[in-house]
Each structure stands twice: as structure tokens, then as C-alpha cells.
Amino acid sequence: MTTATKTKILLVDDDQKVLREIRSHLERLGYEVTSAEDGSSALRLAQSMSPDLVVLDINFPESVSTSRLAVDGIEVLRRLRESGSVPVLMLSATNIAAVKVMALSIGADDYVSKPFDIQELGARIEAILRRTGQETAGERVLSFRRLRLDPGERRVWKDGVPVELTSIEFDILYALARRPEHVFTREKLIEYAWKDNSFCVPKAVDVHVGHVRKKLEDDPARPAFIVTVRGTGYRFEDPVG
User: Fold this and answer.
1) Phi, psi (5° rounding) for residue 81?
2) Which terminus of the chain, N or C, has fewer Cβ atoms within 10 Å?
3) How far is CA 180 from CA 105, 117, 145, in A?
């Protein structure tokens, strides 16, 4: 790390061996790592330490019905998304597509299946942090009649009012807005928003577009900014009013 302040990562997993392995590797890379072994502790730490990124095991407890305090990784992700837009990388021992779609649709920035290569995990984390913390060369502030998008700050304003988007949501919106009226396929939006992550599926794009519409559109059922092109994908429009 070249900055004086270390990037803070919250690591959540109930497997102590996994915690030690990941923590040791991330600390060697220069990150400040805080760990938790359950969902409730993770939520408390996320509130108190304001991490720059969360590495979160899905970790479905076997006896959720018998413990009101049990909070699995999906529930932690939901609550993190309700309270903010901190980047989240999910870990899971399952490689089932439906589970990936669920995590991504809620707002996960990436998904890594166990067992994983520790070097790859570090690379995925670095990619997320680059995407969420730095402006990519050639990107510019986009100003429209009602919207303004700043890729440097990764912020969006509608009618002068800030709108909080997750990293994935911002990348999808920015990709569309850079070329108004151009039709983007779901596969092309995956390239822009998830970069080289081949695990993503087109359905996840639809879910995230739905989230952006709820936050941006006057009437999400009749979108004016992100228009569906039936059978192809989406295009961005700059409506008059």
C-alpha cells in the first residue's frame, strides 16, 4: 500500500482456519483486517468500523429456526445494503447458480466459491477496490437534464439530489449513460460492471437494473432513463421532464 491510511477489510467466516488463512494473506498485502465469526458480530463491526470492503461467507446456519439470533451471510448482505453501499465479496462452499444469482441480486459485488486460490481471492479484492475507489482513465463526469454522474466520486445526482447506488449499479448506469440511445446487450453490461468475472449470469443484470430503476425513476413501472429493448437489452435516454 502506498497510502498512509490502510484499507480496512471486514472478514466474516465461521471457519477459524479459513479466517486465519485469509487474514494472514490480506495483512501481507497491506490491508487492515478485522474478523467476525457470526452475522450479528459482523453487523456490529460494520457499523462501528466502517470498512472499505467486506469479505462475507454465506454460511447458512443449520438451525436457523431454533435460534432467533442466527444471522446468515445473505441476511447480513441485505442489512448492509439497506444501510449503505460498502463493497461486498461473498464466499460460499456451493457453486449453485441460483445461490450466486441471489447474492448478486441483493447487491454483492463479487462471488467466490470455496475452495478458492488465495492469490485469486486477493486479486478479486484488489479489483473491487480499484473499481470502487479510483476513476478509470478516460472516464468523465456525465451531465444530463436531470442526472449527473461523477465516476471519480462514483456518485449520482437526480435533480440535484444525491442518489446512493451500489458499485455494480453505478457501473451499469454509467456504461449505459456514456452512450445514450445505444442498445447494450446484457452480456456487454456484464463486461462493464463485473469486468473479467465470468461467473455472472444475464439474469443478474436484469435484477440490478430493476434496483437502479427503483432508485432513479419517477415511476419504475414506466422507466424513462433506462429503457428495455425487448429481446436485446437496455438503452439510456435523457428525458425532457
Assistant:
1) -70, -30
2) C
3) 25, 40, 13
Enclosing domain of residue 212: 142-236
Spatial separation of the C-alpha atoms in residues 59 and 160, rounded to whole Å: 40
Same domain, 126 and 157: no
Strands 8-12 and 32-36: parallel
Are 74 and 106 spatial neighbours (Cβ–Cβ below 8 Å)? yes
| Cell numbers linked to 35 | 474478523
High-pLDDT (> 70) share of the chain, %: 88
Full-prediction pTM beyond 0.70? no
pLDDT at 43: 94
Domain with 110 in it: what CATH number?
3.40.50.2300
Mean pLDDT score of the chain, rounded to an integer?
85
